[in-house]
């Protein structure tokens, strides 16, 4: 059981790195993979370095990191609420974060120009985290009764909160400047286009700080899946751990949303697939993280080059369109399973 | 284990358990019975830390359970609450291993001591052969025994079990009672809330009858379970007969016509 999660984690990480290398090599200037590796190891020619390190790597790194962040967030929320449908994109965390971020883009926008430095670098992630926390807080407060979380209610209330946050976003897009609104709309589809290091670094910090903390609660999560009463009689301080992990899950999802827009379905699908493959009774955090990174990097490679490879034309899709195309059928499958009571 | 003047209520409403004092005999099986709504399950929640009392206290080895650190309490007191969640696909051995949670560090694998406790617990409930079976594929009685094994694996001196035989047919209920009784014989202090009076009387060393949030009677089953008490507390007209030293409740029929 244990060894299965380790093997799959390593496998997914290796695949994610392989896809990332391919992503770094394809594009307008096609580079041999050997050159890409040489650059990453610190060598290579100046021109190649510029293309790889400054132009392509930020995008790939952002993709990897937001994949990890979304996936871990989903794994935590699904475990805490004991509901496979409870992921930040379903229960309104991403929508709340989007509302925060769009508010900054639209309200602090300069009427078509780039959003000025401070508002963009600090404002968007911060506003996203605030928006996400507000959404989580409301969903959490409304779905707890007598100190016990109602797994069914979490999703229903979350969907309501998501709708409310989305209408706030729609309103912001209407009242905002056309150009700002346009940029916000592109961002809302979940796009890794033209990512810079300034997009990747906040997510990197969130993942590096919070993933290890979440891992420390692994054993408590294994007790928590047996029910709140059983967990607390096994010595788990349920209320405290639930609060800490809820905040971690929210911050991860919000930072990822700030970095690349609310990329749909990663947080829903990656934990469930990792759980099935490892045959665990809950999504294993590390395997889920690696699978999430792989999912987004692969989806982005397809989003960027799929239409060209299919000879349709030189068009790019937002990565969120690809993840949604894969994730939506899976969501329907999950709902079908739940309806059957299994 | 001592319960001192314990008052329990949900959401600051009227007390469900009202100033109850109870001395739990060590190394014996105590059965708590009573009509629906008499507060027997609430009492058990108050005796563990699942419910914080309005007033009064519960002493375990002379220490207030609310003063003990959560892990420390979990090493002394095992609780099987009602309605535990059986995760899909978890095997019997995996589930039982969760009982070792309070003994384990942050990381690291199961120790030899953990493995021994898990094996012994599975053996005690006679499920060693089914240890690698998913729990959701077992019968209701087997599933309940897996959960009891989890609490046994916790290795605590004290055990609280909330209606461990509910929804089981008589044969499976007897299997479960045998396991619980064996735990008491091996020296553990066991308190079980039960709804079947005859079953409770057959197995319990000490019988506690609750009515209206208080103790209506307690003592040896044969002394406590009388026709007068059944009428008084349960509103049940019944004849109590003795079989093999234990009282058996036979409800009086009121046939129409």
TrEMBL record, chain A:
<feature type="transmembrane region" description="Helical">
    <location>
        <begin position="315"/>
        <end position="336"/>
    </location>
</feature>
<dbReference type="GO" id="GO:0033214">
    <property type="term" value="P:siderophore-iron import into cell"/>
</dbReference>
<feature type="transmembrane region" description="Helical">
    <location>
        <begin position="243"/>
        <end position="265"/>
    </location>
</feature>
<feature type="transmembrane region" description="Helical">
    <location>
        <begin position="196"/>
        <end position="217"/>
    </location>
</feature>
<dbReference type="GO" id="GO:0022857">
    <property type="term" value="F:transmembrane transporter activity"/>
</dbReference>
<feature type="transmembrane region" description="Helical">
    <location>
        <begin position="90"/>
        <end position="110"/>
    </location>
</feature>
<dbReference type="InterPro" id="IPR000522">
    <property type="entry name" value="ABC_transptr_permease_BtuC"/>
</dbReference>
<keyword id="KW-1133">Transmembrane helix</keyword>
<keyword id="KW-0813">Transport</keyword>
<keyword id="KW-0812">Transmembrane</keyword>
<feature type="transmembrane region" description="Helical">
    <location>
        <begin position="122"/>
        <end position="142"/>
    </location>
</feature>
<dbReference type="InterPro" id="IPR037294">
    <property type="entry name" value="ABC_BtuC-like"/>
</dbReference>
<comment type="similarity">
    <text>Belongs to the binding-protein-dependent transport system permease family. FecCD subfamily.</text>
</comment>
<feature type="transmembrane region" description="Helical">
    <location>
        <begin position="285"/>
        <end position="303"/>
    </location>
</feature>
<keyword id="KW-1003">Cell membrane</keyword>
<dbReference type="GO" id="GO:0005886">
    <property type="term" value="C:plasma membrane"/>
</dbReference>
<dbReference type="Pfam" id="PF01032">
    <property type="entry name" value="FecCD"/>
</dbReference>
<feature type="transmembrane region" description="Helical">
    <location>
        <begin position="60"/>
        <end position="78"/>
    </location>
</feature>
<keyword id="KW-0472">Membrane</keyword>
<feature type="transmembrane region" description="Helical">
    <location>
        <begin position="154"/>
        <end position="176"/>
    </location>
</feature>
<protein>
    <submittedName>
        <fullName>Iron complex transport system permease protein</fullName>
    </submittedName>
</protein>
TrEMBL record, chain B:
<keyword id="KW-0813">Transport</keyword>
<dbReference type="GO" id="GO:0005524">
    <property type="term" value="F:ATP binding"/>
</dbReference>
<keyword id="KW-0408">Iron</keyword>
<dbReference type="GO" id="GO:0005886">
    <property type="term" value="C:plasma membrane"/>
</dbReference>
<dbReference type="InterPro" id="IPR027417">
    <property type="entry name" value="P-loop_NTPase"/>
</dbReference>
<dbReference type="InterPro" id="IPR003439">
    <property type="entry name" value="ABC_transporter-like_ATP-bd"/>
</dbReference>
<dbReference type="Pfam" id="PF00005">
    <property type="entry name" value="ABC_tran"/>
</dbReference>
<dbReference type="InterPro" id="IPR051535">
    <property type="entry name" value="Siderophore_ABC-ATPase"/>
</dbReference>
<dbReference type="GO" id="GO:0006826">
    <property type="term" value="P:iron ion transport"/>
</dbReference>
<keyword id="KW-0547">Nucleotide-binding</keyword>
<dbReference type="InterPro" id="IPR017871">
    <property type="entry name" value="ABC_transporter-like_CS"/>
</dbReference>
<protein>
    <submittedName>
        <fullName>Iron complex transport system ATP-binding protein</fullName>
    </submittedName>
</protein>
<keyword id="KW-1003">Cell membrane</keyword>
<keyword id="KW-0410">Iron transport</keyword>
<feature type="domain" description="ABC transporter">
    <location>
        <begin position="1"/>
        <end position="237"/>
    </location>
</feature>
<keyword id="KW-0472">Membrane</keyword>
<keyword id="KW-0406">Ion transport</keyword>
<dbReference type="GO" id="GO:0016887">
    <property type="term" value="F:ATP hydrolysis activity"/>
</dbReference>
<dbReference type="InterPro" id="IPR003593">
    <property type="entry name" value="AAA+_ATPase"/>
</dbReference>
<keyword id="KW-0067">ATP-binding</keyword>
């Amino acid at each position: 059981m244990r060894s299965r999660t380790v093997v799959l984690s390593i496998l997914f990480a290796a695949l994610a790195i392989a896809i990332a290398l391919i992503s770094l090599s394809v594009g307008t200037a096609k580079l041999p993979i050997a050159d890409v590796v040489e650059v990453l190891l610190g060598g290579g020619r100046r021109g190649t370095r510029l293309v790889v390190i400054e132009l392509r790597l930020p995008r790939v790194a952002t993709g990897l990191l937001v994949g990890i962040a979304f996936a871990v967030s989903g794994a935590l929320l699904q475990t805490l609420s004991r509901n496979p449908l409870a992921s930040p994109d379903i229960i309104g965390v991403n929508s709340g974060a989007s509302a925060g971020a769009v508010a900054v883009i639209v309200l602090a926008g300069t009427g078509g120009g780039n959003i000025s430095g401070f508002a963009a670098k600090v404002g968007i992630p911060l506003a996203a985290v605030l928006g996400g926390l507000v959404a989580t807080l409301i969903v959490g407060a409304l779905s707890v009764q007598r100190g016990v979380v109602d797994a069914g209610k979490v999703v229903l209330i979350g969907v309501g909160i998501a709708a409310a946050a989305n209408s706030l976003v729609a309103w912001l897009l209407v009242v905002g400047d056309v150009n700002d609104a346009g940029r916000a709309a592109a961002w809302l589809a979940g796009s890794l286009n033209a990512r810079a290091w300034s997009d990747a670094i906040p997510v990197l910090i969130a993942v590096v700080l919070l993933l290890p903390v979440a891992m420390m609660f692994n054993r408590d999560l294994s007790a928590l899946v047996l029910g709140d009463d059983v967990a607390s009689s096994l010595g788990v301080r349920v209320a405290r751990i639930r609060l800490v992990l809820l905040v971690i899950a929210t911050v991860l999802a919000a930072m990822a949303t700030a970095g690349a827009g609310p990329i749909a379905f990663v947080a829903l699908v990656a934990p469930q697939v990792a759980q099935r493959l490892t045959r665990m009774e809950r999504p294993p955090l590390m395997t889920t993280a690696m699978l999430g990174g792989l999912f987004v990097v692969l989806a982005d490679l397809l989003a960027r080059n799929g239409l060209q490879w299919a000879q349709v034309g030189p068009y790019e899709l937002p990565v969120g369109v690809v993840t949604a195309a894969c994730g939506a059928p899976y969501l329907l499958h999950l709902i079908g399973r739940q309806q059957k009571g299994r | 284990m001592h319960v001192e003047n314990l008052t329990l209520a949900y959401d600051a409403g009227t007390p469900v358990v009202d100033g109850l004092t109870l001395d739990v005999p060590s190394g014996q099986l105590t059965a708590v019975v009573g009509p629906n709504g008499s507060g027997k399950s609430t009492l058990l929640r108050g005796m563990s830390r699942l419910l914080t009392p309005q007033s009064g206290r519960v002493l375990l080895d002379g220490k207030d359970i609310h003063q003990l650190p959560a892990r420390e309490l979990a090493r002394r007191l095992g609780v099987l609450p009602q309605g535990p969640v059986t995760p899909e696909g978890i095997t019997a051995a995996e589930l039982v291993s969760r009982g070792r949670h309070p003994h384990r560090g942050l990381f690291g694998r199961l120790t030899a001591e953990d493995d021994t406790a898990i094996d012994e617990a599975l053996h005690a409930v006679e499920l060693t052969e089914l240890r690698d079976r998913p729990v959701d594929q077992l019968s209701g009685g087997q599933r309940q025994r897996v959960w009891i094994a989890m609490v046994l694996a916790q290795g605590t001196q004290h055990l609280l079990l909330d209606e461990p035989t509910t929804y089981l047919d008589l044969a499976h209920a007897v299997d479960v009672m045998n396991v619980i009784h064996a735990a008491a014989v091996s020296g553990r202090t066991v308190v079980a809330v039960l709804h079947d009076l005859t079953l409770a009387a057959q197995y319990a060393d000490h019988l506690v009858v609750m009515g209206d949030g208080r103790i209506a009677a307690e003592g040896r089953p044969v002394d406590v379970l009388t026709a007068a008490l059944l009428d008084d507390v349960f509103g049940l007209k019944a004849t109590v007969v003795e079989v093999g030293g234990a009282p058996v409740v036979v409800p009086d029929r009121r046939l129409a016509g």
